[in-house]
Design goal:
The complex is a heterodimer of chains A (570) and B (531). Chain A is mainly alpha-helical. Chain A is built from 28 helices and 4 strands. In chain A, strands 1-2-4-3 form a 4-stranded mixed sheet. In chain A, helix 3 packs across helix 4. The longest helix of chain B is centred in the last third of the chain and has 30 residues. Chain B starts with 8 loop residues before the first helix and ends in a 6-residue tail after the last strand.
């Protein structure tokens, strides 16, 4: 069979009646509206600690012509900062700009997921996949959205779509280029390329081996082209030195994160299940388990033919209608397998990075949504095939459905969406009423008070320096773009950070004497830095800064978490 | 599930050995804080004829203390209770396998269930084994056997009585009586009249055990102690009571996470995967019905026991241990089914790669990891490096209290103690102090939480004040820096009791510090301090 003609069967080319097409269009618009509505809280979220850091970096790029690594010290590759700069250029220099960009990009991702699944499975499953993704994304909260991991689907979903269409050489190269995009978002996300290569060799056996090897070669070539943009960027913007410094820091950071294989293993054994039980939710775990089981147990060698292997319990399929497992189209099976492999590799990436905060896991959401939707459709079909249900089943469902809903991402979705509404309507006090400052280590009211003091005491041109793990938020609230390169105190606290960063910051403070200096009093970041020093403690250890603060600055504002110093009039 | 995949005698032998390998290594493990409390109380029962609630202050119902006392009849060391515990757990595993087979479940399911239970129990380590929840397994298996297999009138009465026994282990666990009731109403397909009769018989059996408890309290003159304990528990519940919002948040966030860690991710995922298979149609009886009824019964047990966990509001692994027997049976159903599926489809490369990878991941996140971590490794440390190695292992894991301090204190008291000398320990691990010093307390209260808690009956503190003044114990052991907030609602450590019980002046005058470790201080009475 010619490879092009062997492109995995889909139902989009079948002749349809006008009424059927009309119904599909109606469904598509309904689905689009539902997804767009579900995602609205993502557009209303307040800035988070990391997204605020990206925001002020984007501001530096946009307004000061800054280059990443040269003028901005942070561990992520350049793409995310330039995305934020682009958002500010398009939608204005406010924190709403990146939220709007995020909303549009997530909408696009959810629609791509829906389109991809609709091509190989039922419309119900497609809509479910897109809605699950949208709901789970919003459930990441203000602090876990608009981050590098949030845009995995934007690149990885088209990668899967292209690979399933079995294109010619350039298409394969496009898969590699999209993986390159992931690489420029976060280096470890490039693992998706590995999945694409392994899948090419293992899941598409109907193409000749030589052909598959050539396809893998094209993917690698595409990846190399985009990845080469990084050294080009470094060379053009003279950022090699900064890149080397960040790599030094990362090496120390990795040593700090994984003190030994035993403790790393213990942490993984505790943190991974904790994430899946809590943030990911038990309902999603169950649906994904069914989806993965389907991906394993369904035949991928028979297209639209009845299988004689399936047992009674499997005899249900798409659209909830009882069908034989063999009737699952091959494309659907391969899609599930690609999604499963990608999700597994993403989880492995988190374990290797040894960072278990919920947003690190958000990289697996697009794939989990596809797998869970398949599991959900199977489950509905399974139950429908058992009608009329017995009294036990009814009792169990009456008990299980509310529990399943409570233990689903819906609970988090509701909580964080409410917070978004509170923030929109009431501002910082609304936010603080939803997220206690004891848990966060800061409050938005404090940021607002700092911003008010800065506005009252100074002018727009006055410089400000913030020593904090959430410096981005302070800058964002005060509408200041930092001049200093280093805007996260962890880079100054960590004992393994390059000495030049501390010296450079001290030199900047002593020579420039910014009008305002903000210190976070109690934000020990031991998990990141291996040190118990708070940002305020660290600030005073910088050469010459303690005496500078004593001799030239007064406290203009103080709260439980922050102290704002204002330079005395010269 | 059919019994086609039968396991031969040799196979069962291997499964028996594997299951035993999960449980038997717990024998050399030392006593933990709770098991030492039961141990010391059992000594009081054996040597002083103590009656629970009257002479022993602790929150658990009486059964566990008598179980320990029975074990101590064969020798007063931790080995007696450890060996009895292993025998009970092995019997539970055998009971699980027999029950599954009797319910027409496959041999693979029966074997997987027995091994899963063994691994779950073995993963608890030294502090969390031999708890009251550890003995719910045989009770639940017995109830299921009576309700699903025997189904005679006597069987239902016995099932109710077994639910009563569960209540004697821990009051909230009496919820298993609900399994019998709901089983009769929704699982088995008897007429309403017969179901009603069965439920009535079960309730009668349960009532008999309740009556026996009442009789025990009256005959043992323990009603006042029982009332005091209820006062303490009521105060505890009020103090720890949560608002609706925090309760809901806990339900959504903490409960799944703690259960996932307590039962292991693999077991929880397998339980969830098994649920749909229990939801049968109202179709005529099928040859697999018995097996499905067992699955349904055990899912009911999981649901009700989870409710009992939520009522208690504490989620330590041993408390989650009440789900072990039912969780093992339910999860093994899905595990056996999944293995059969993957085994039948091993021809595809994807199935081979992902199937094997999934099995490896399932093993890593199974109770086997906990068993290696909390039982095998500490036993190996104990065997190769003695108590120091054991201590070093748990210190490295940043857990618990240093046993080396306890051993030092125990040896110190043992060496200096003369016949008739009393020991008073103001500590959250007071029972361990008594155990290691070879002393049996003649006072009622040997857990400082009961004295520190602001909601504890004031009579208890008065009683201990009088005890200290009147009996003038030869040794007073005080613990520093223990944090008991979850039991006392106060940040005060055990050492605060020196002032609460007005002991400071006497301690300074009539006692001197003879040993001081990081957390424990031993005050020895001077000659002038004697009455």
């Amino acid at each position: 069979m010619n490879e092009q003609s062997s492109a995995i069967a889909n139902d989009s080319h079948a002749p349809r009646s006008l009424s059927e097409r009309g119904s599909r269009t109606w469904w598509a618009w309904l689905g689009f509206a539902a997804i767009a509505i579900v995602l609205i809280p993502a557009a209303l979220y307040s800035p988070g600690s990391d997204s605020a850091l990206f925001f002020i970096s984007g501001q530096k790029i946009l307004h000061n012509g800054a280059a990443h690594y040269r003028d901005i010290v942070d561990v992520k590759p350049p793409l995310i900062y330039h995305m934020y700069a682009a958002a500010a250029a398009l939608f204005g220099s406010t924190t709403s700009s990146f939220r709007l960009m995020d909303y549009l990009l997530q909408l696009a991702t959810a629609l791509m997921i829906g389109r991809l699944v609709a091509r190989y499975a039922s419309r119900t499953e497609a809509l479910l996949a897109a809605l699950i993704y949208a709901c789970m994304y919003v459930a990441q909260s203000y602090n876990g959205t608009a981050l590098t991991e949030s845009y995995v689907g934007l690149f990885a979903v088209p990668m899967i779509a292209i690979q399933l269409r079995r294109p010619r050489a350039f298409g394969m190269m496009a898969i590699g280029m999209l993986a390159g995009g992931l690489f420029l978002l976060k280096f470890s996300l490039a693992a998706s390329l590995g999945v694409a290569c392994v899948a090419e060799l293992a899941l598409f056996a109907n193409a000749s081996f030589g052909r598959r090897i050539r396809n893998v070669g094209m993917m690698l070539a595409g990846f190399a082209i985009v990845a080469a943009m990084l050294p080009l960027y470094l060379a053009v913007f003279d950022a090699w030195q900064g890149f080397a410094e960040v790599n030094d820091f990362l090496a120390g950071y990795l040593r700090n994160q994984t003190p030994g294989i035993v403790s790393a293993a213990r942490e993984a054994l505790t943190e991974v299940p904790a994430y899946f039980a809590d943030e990911f939710s038990l309902s999603m775990v169950a649906l994904c388990a069914f989806g993965v089981a389907i991906s394993i147990s369904m035949s991928d060698t028979k297209s639209d033919k009845k299988s004689d292997e399936g047992d009674e319990d499997d005899a249900v399929g798409g659209n909830g209608a009882p069908v034989d497992p063999g009737a699952w189209r091959r494309g659907h099976v391969v899609l599930l397998r690609l999604a499963t492999l990608n999700a597994a590799v993403m989880i492995a990436g988190v374990v290797i990075e040894a960072k278990y905060r919920a947003f690190h896991f958000s990289r697996l959401l697009p794939f989990a949504a596809i797998v869970a939707a398949a599991g959900a459709v199977w489950l509905f079909g399974f139950l429908r095939a058992r009608r009329p249900l017995g009294s036990y089943a009814w009792m169990a469902l009456l008990g299980l459905v509310p529990v399943a809903l409570a233990l689903s991402p819906l609970a988090r979705y509701a909580r964080h969406s409410t917070a978004a509404v509170f923030w929109t309507l009431k501002g910082p006090s609304g936010f603080d009423s939803m997220y206690p400052s004891e848990e966060l280590g800061y409050s938005y009211s404090e940021f607002a008070a700092i911003a008010d003091t800065v506005r009252e005491h100074g002018s727009i041109s006055d410089e400000m320096f913030v020593s904090s793990g959430v410096a981005g938020l302070v800058y964002a609230f005060a509408h200041k773009v930092p001049t200093a390169r280093i805007n996260h105190a962890a880079f100054l606290i960590a004992p393994y950070a390059p000495d030049t960063w501390r010296l450079e910051t001290a030199r900047y403070l002593v020579s420039q004497q910014p009008r305002f200096i903000v210190a976070h009093l109690n934000d020990s970041m031991k998990e990141m830095t291996g040190s118990r020093l708070s940002s305020a403690d660290m600030l005073r250890t910088l050469p010459g800064v303690d005496s500078l603060l004593r001799s030239a600055y007064d406290t203009a504002y103080a709260s439980y978490h922050f102290e704002l110093y204002e330079r005395r009039r010269r | 599930m059919s019994g086609a995949d039968s396991i031969g005698q040799r196979g069962w032998l291997v499964i028996g050995v594997v299951t035993a390998a999960f449980i038997v290594p717990t024998i050399p493990l030392p006593l933990g804080p709770d098991s030492s409390m039961f141990f010391v109380s059992a000594q009081k029962i054996l040597h002083e004829g103590a009656v629970h609630y009257r002479d022993i202050v602790d929150v658990k119902p009486p059964l566990i203390y008598y179980l320990y006392a029975f074990a101590l009849l064969f020798g007063e060391s931790s080995y007696s209770i450890r060996i009895l515990d292993v025998l009970i757990q092995l019997a539970t595993c055998a009971g699980i396998a027999l029950l599954v087979r009797r319910a027409q479940g496959s041999d693979a399911w029966a074997a997987a269930a027995a091994m899963t239970y063994g691994a779950l129990y073995g993963s608890l380590g030294y502090t969390y084994t031999m708890q009251v929840e550890s003995y719910l397994g045989p009770v639940l298996i017995g109830i299921a056997w009576m309700v699903l297999v025997r189904r005679s009138r006597i069987a239902f009465f016995a099932a109710g009585a077994l639910a009563g026994v569960a209540m004697l282990l821990k009051f909230p666990i009496a919820i298993v009586l609900g399994c019998i009731v709901l089983c009769e109403l929704t699982i088995t397909r008897d007429s309403l009249r017969r179901s009603t009769l069965h439920i009535a018989l079960a309730c009668a059996g349960f009532a008999l055990v309740v009556a026996l408890l009442a009789l025990y309290l009256v005959a043992g003159d323990a009603l006042v102690g029982f009332a005091q304990m209820n006062q303490y528990i009521a105060g505890y519940v009020q103090t720890n009571g949560r608002g609706v919002a925090s309760f809901a948040a806990e339900l959504v966030r903490d409960v799944p996470e703690k259960i996932m860690i307590g039962l292991s991710a693999t077991v929880v995922v397998a339980i969830l995967a098994a649920v749909p298979f229990a939801l049968r149609s109202r179709s005529p009886r099928h040859r697999d019905d018995r097996a499905i009824e067992l699955l349904q019964f055990m899912l009911l047990a999981i649901a009700l026991l989870t409710v009992s966990l939520i009522i208690e509001g504490k989620y330590y692994p041993y408390q989650i241990g009440r789900l072990h027997a039912c969780g093992a049976i339910v999860s093994s159903y899905a595990i056996a089914k999944f293995l059969r599926h993957v085994g039948a489809r091993m021809s595809g490369m994807y199935t081979r790669i992902v199937g094997i990878a999934l099995l490896a991941i399932a093993l890593v996140f199974s109770p086997v990891a906990g068993w290696l971590w909390f039982t095998v490794a500490p036993v190996a440390a104990l065997a190769t490096h003695g108590h120091r190695g054991f201590d070093a292992y748990f210190t490295r894991m940043a857990m618990y209290y240093p046993r080396s301090e306890l051993l030092a204190v125990g040896n110190h008291i043992k060496t200096a103690r003369k016949a008739g000398d009393r020991v008073l320990a103001l500590s959250s691990i007071a029972a361990l102090v008594h155990y290691h010093s070879g002393s049996i307390p003649d006072h009622r209260i040997y857990h400082s939480a009961f004295l520190l808690a602001v909601f504890g009956p004031p009579e208890w503190r008065d009683e201990m004040r009088r005890y200290f003044v009147d009996r003038r114990p030869a040794f007073v052991v005080v613990q520093r820096g223990d944090w008991l907030f979850d039991k006392t609602s106060t940040d005060a450590p055990s050492s605060a009791l020196i002032d609460t019980l007005n002991m400071r002046a006497t301690l300074e005058r009539d006692y001197r510090i003879t040993l001081e470790t990081e957390r424990l201080v031993v005050y020895s009475r001077t000659e002038s301090g004697r009455h």
